[in-house]
Inverse folding.
């Protein structure tokens, strides 16, 4: 795949005329997707896809376009020749772009994944066996993910990764279920079985009659997965340079009023320890780490090349969305074993669902509890809790009402597969929070 | 192109009970002007095909962007392998599925084709509209854009079925963001809601329009909020694959159960909901779904009573319930699942003035900006960009962050007045997410303004 992409890049270079330059990014995927319901197979299949985004540049004018690639060299070379002709025709109609910025230092890099994946049929056999006598629903996704960058200045970057992500639930009845993820690069049957056993144990608690609580403020524990989802919503406009300079950041009170989160909150975009490519679409390399929040204070924005040029600051290799791809939240000191005793009486939240801002300037989010959420009394799980709506500000969740973060963190490989399988990830602790507001 | 693919398909059909090929080519252009600066003019073309095979009761698919004979043959073999591997272990017994071979065509109505207007003219239009948005120094960001898409699809079955469809859509967008201190608020042109099928004539239909209280009160919702209310608390709960449990690990389940169809009182008797892929200008009109089932208009809820599910042929067989032609895939690389298409609330008889005049104390809300609902599609909370108090039958003070919450199962029963055709608008959303693997599809919605009684309203901090 790498040689094929580099050969296409050479073809583009050969086709340039006059002072033209180009940048291009490649995305490829060879994935198996097996969807399951009621411990049986619902939709099994495979997807092979490749695409190339090309930006043809002449001076400060440029025209970007994306095309699907077949993988057949002759067919794809013809497509690229036609694409360049289209873009060349468009360029005279476009004005100079004052915010165009692309890498001019040749910073080539290569990251090669090691393919240790099992045949999907073998993983399926293990999964169906785990579902015997239970109601299992979910999806197994596995295969290679590829990304590349090239430009006419000779820079070449390559990334490949071979991973699986089995995202599933065991259901008791109606909306009562335990959700679990098992993701990685090599299938470990013993590790999978431990996940199955832990989920089964939680499922037993869900068989007890569910409890409903009145809306109000409760002490809660947010699992690492739940906290990762909250941070994911915070990443939607919280950290981008453009969002900050146009006052649209949901963390505006931290920037304008100096509001601080709890001193134990330190948040990084940690490319070094994540699983995403270390280069972006204009050819800039991402630094190993960008500190977003340090000891409760806002530190740095994520600055894409375009925003950097617009606002006259250096880029830090962010992609166009200016949101973190490899979230890293510092651990606290609360041992996981002490979570229930420290929660004492309150709500243990394993998963949250359908988060959205309910008041952006106040950084207030609403969402639901989902899957295994429990009512806890005197440090012991008493009963599953019927789903509750919450509506609460990050300034309180990770600020004045944060009691402690756990000492252990969980590595979460994002299971999203819109358009292509995600390479986002998080390394996140759990959080013990006081006076968390439930509204419905 | 179509003839070559059809010839390749004829050569690669595996020895199985059923085989189909679904080819999709999607081309799109995004023109955007932000703060009076033209943004990179982006175009894209995505092309590929999905092969689906039924054999011995199992099913498998394989999708590829390699449309050469060898690429399609590899995909057919992969799909066949999956079908054999899932035989006897499948949720659905596909040996019972025998869809008849479909034949037909569909082409979007397009009066002013996108390419008939020069690029420079389209850019100039956006420059003009964008410049009009900066009316005050407190406006800190503003933009105007057009997103045009052309989708061509070819559906072939091994038993001779052939369906060709072409869709043209346009999504106009404008937004302005104002800031004062730590208060920042955005107003937009109905979010991305003014999306329709067609060419640049879609712009002719645009009308340029101009701390809420807390408590239980009446609420009048404009069409650009109604579309979200219909989408989240009627559309998704009526998807039959959710009711059958397929989505329980991701998008969720539904408070609606199979035995409710035919008798359940979903809303007041003013509530009439149709699945209507037949309105040519609406965003998601089509003649056939992505499994080749011919589409037609159907009532899902009539006079408040639940009649029919949003379930495709496969789900209809599984649940033994009536459904609609709604097996839809986001593109060639995802398998069809039960989706909304055009889901509309039929107009009533009240004018907007009559609805507002009937309210002693309430809030008028317009343009969704916040949405969240539980996994059974019951407990929801929605927020709007714009709201005004209604006091003694008159619109009065503008309120900040107008929001409301409720429960789907009871909310629609509080539908008190339904706006007439003059309050009715054809809209939609380009982004409806669902499915494993994940898929985003376009959905059309049409609705009049509506009045609801006794709603739990609240505002911002």
């Amino acid at each position: 795949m790498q040689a094929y992409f580099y050969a296409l890049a050479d073809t583009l270079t050969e086709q340039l005329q006059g002072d033209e330059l180009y940048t291009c990014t490649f995305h490829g995927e060879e994935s198996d997707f097996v969807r399951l319901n009621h411990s049986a197979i619902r939709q099994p299949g495979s997807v092979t896809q490749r695409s190339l985004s090309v930006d043809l540049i002449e001076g400060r004018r440029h025209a970007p376009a994306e095309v699907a690639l077949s993988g057949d060299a002759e067919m794809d070379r013809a497509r690229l020749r036609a694409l360049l002709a289209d873009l060349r025709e468009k360029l005279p109609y476009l004005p100079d772009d004052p915010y165009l910025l692309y890498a001019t230092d040749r910073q080539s890099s290569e990251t090669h994944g090691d393919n240790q994946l099992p045949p999907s049929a073998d993983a399926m056999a293990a999964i169906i066996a785990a579902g015997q006598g239970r109601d299992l629903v979910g999806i197994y996704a596995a295969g290679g993910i590829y990304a590349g960058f090239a430009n006419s200045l000779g820079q070449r970057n390559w990334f490949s990764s071979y991973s699986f992500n089995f995202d599933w639930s065991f259901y008791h009845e109606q909306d009562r279920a335990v959700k679990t993820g098992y993701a990685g690069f090599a299938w470990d049957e013993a590790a999978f079985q431990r996940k199955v056993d832990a989920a089964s144990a939680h499922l037993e608690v869900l068989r007890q009659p569910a409890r409903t609580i009145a809306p109000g403020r409760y002490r809660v524990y947010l699992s690492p997965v739940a906290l990762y989802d909250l941070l994911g919503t915070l990443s939607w406009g919280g950290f981008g340079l453009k969002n900050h300079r146009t006052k649209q950041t949901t963390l505006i009170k931290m920037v304008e009023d100096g509001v601080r989160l709890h001193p134990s909150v330190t948040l990084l975009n940690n490319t070094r320890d994540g699983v995403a490519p270390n280069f972006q679409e204009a050819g800039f390399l991402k630094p190993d780490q960008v500190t977003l929040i340090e000891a409760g204070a806002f530190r740095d924005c994520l600055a894409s090349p375009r925003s950097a040029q617009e606002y006259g600051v250096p880029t830090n290799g962010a992609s166009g969305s200016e949101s973190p791809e490899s979230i890293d939240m510092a651990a606290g000191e609360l041992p996981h074993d002490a979570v229930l005793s420290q929660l004492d009486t309150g709500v243990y939240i394993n998963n949250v669902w359908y988060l959205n801002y309910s008041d952006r300037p106040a950084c207030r989010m609403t969402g639901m509890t989902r899957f295994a959420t429990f009512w806890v009394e005197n440090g012991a799980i008493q009963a599953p809790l019927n789903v509750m709506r919450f509506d609460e500000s990050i300034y309180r969740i990770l600020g004045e009402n944060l009691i402690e973060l756990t000492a252990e963190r969980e590595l979460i490989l994002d299971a999203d597969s819109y358009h292509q399988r995600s390479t986002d990830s998080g390394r996140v602790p759990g959080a013990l929070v006081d006076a968390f507001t439930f509204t419905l | 192109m179509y003839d070559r693919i059809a010839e390749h398909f004829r050569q690669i059909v595996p020895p199985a009970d059923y085989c189909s090929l679904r080819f999709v080519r999607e081309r799109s252009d995004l023109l955007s002007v932000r703060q009076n600066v033209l943004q990179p003019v982006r175009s894209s073309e995505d092309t590929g095909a999905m092969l689906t095979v039924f054999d011995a009761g199992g099913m498998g698919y394989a999708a590829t962007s390699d449309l050469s004979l060898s690429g399609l043959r590899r995909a057919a073999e992969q799909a066949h392998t999956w079908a054999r591997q899932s035989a006897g272990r499948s949720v659905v017994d596909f040996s019972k599925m025998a869809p008849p071979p479909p034949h037909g065509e569909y082409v979007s109505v397009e009066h002013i084709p996108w390419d008939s207007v020069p690029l420079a003219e389209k850019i100039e239009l956006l420059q003009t509209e964008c410049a009009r948005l900066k009316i005050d120094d407190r406006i800190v960001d503003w933009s105007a854009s057009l997103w045009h898409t052309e989708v061509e699809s070819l559906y072939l079955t091994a038993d001779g079925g052939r369906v060709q469809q072409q869709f043209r859509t346009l999504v106009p967008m404008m937004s302005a963001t104002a800031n004062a201190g730590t208060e920042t608020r955005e107003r937009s042109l109905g979010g991305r809601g003014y999306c329709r099928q067609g060419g640049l004539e879609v712009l002719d239909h645009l009308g340029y329009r101009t701390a809420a209280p807390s408590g239980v009160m009446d609420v009048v919702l404009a069409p650009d909020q109604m579309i979200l209310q219909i989408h989240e608390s009627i559309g998704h709960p009526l998807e039959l694959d959710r009711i059958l449990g397929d989505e329980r690990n991701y998008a969720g389940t539904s408070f609606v159960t199979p035995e409710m169809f035919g008798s359940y009182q979903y809303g007041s008797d003013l509530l009439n909901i149709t699945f209507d892929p037949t309105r040519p200008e609406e965003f998601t009109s089509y003649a056939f779904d992505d499994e080749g089932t011919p589409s037609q208009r159907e009532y899902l809820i009539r006079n408040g009573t639940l009649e029919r599910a949003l379930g495709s042929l496969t789900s209809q067989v599984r649940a033994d319930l009536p459904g609609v032609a709604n097996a839809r895939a986001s593109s060639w690389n995802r398998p069809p699942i039960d989706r909304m298409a055009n889901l509309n609330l039929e107009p009533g008889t009240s004018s907007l003035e009559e609805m507002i005049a009937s309210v002693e104390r309430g809030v008028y809300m317009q343009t969704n900006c916040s949405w969240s609902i539980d996994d059974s599609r019951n407990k929801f909370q929605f927020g709007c960009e714009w709201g005004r108090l209604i006091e003694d039958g008159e619109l009065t003070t503008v309120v900040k962050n107008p929001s409301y919450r409720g429960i789907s199962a009871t909310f629609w029963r509080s539908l008190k007045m339904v706006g007439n055709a003059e309050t009715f608008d054809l809209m939609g959303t380009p982004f409806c997410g669902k499915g494993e693997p994940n898929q985003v599809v376009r959905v059309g919605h049409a609705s009049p303004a509506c009045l609801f009684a006794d709603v739990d309203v609240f505002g911002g901090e």
User: Anything to note?
Assistant: Helices of chain B lie at 2-12, 69-86, 119-133, 223-235, 240-243, 313-319, 352-357, 408-411.
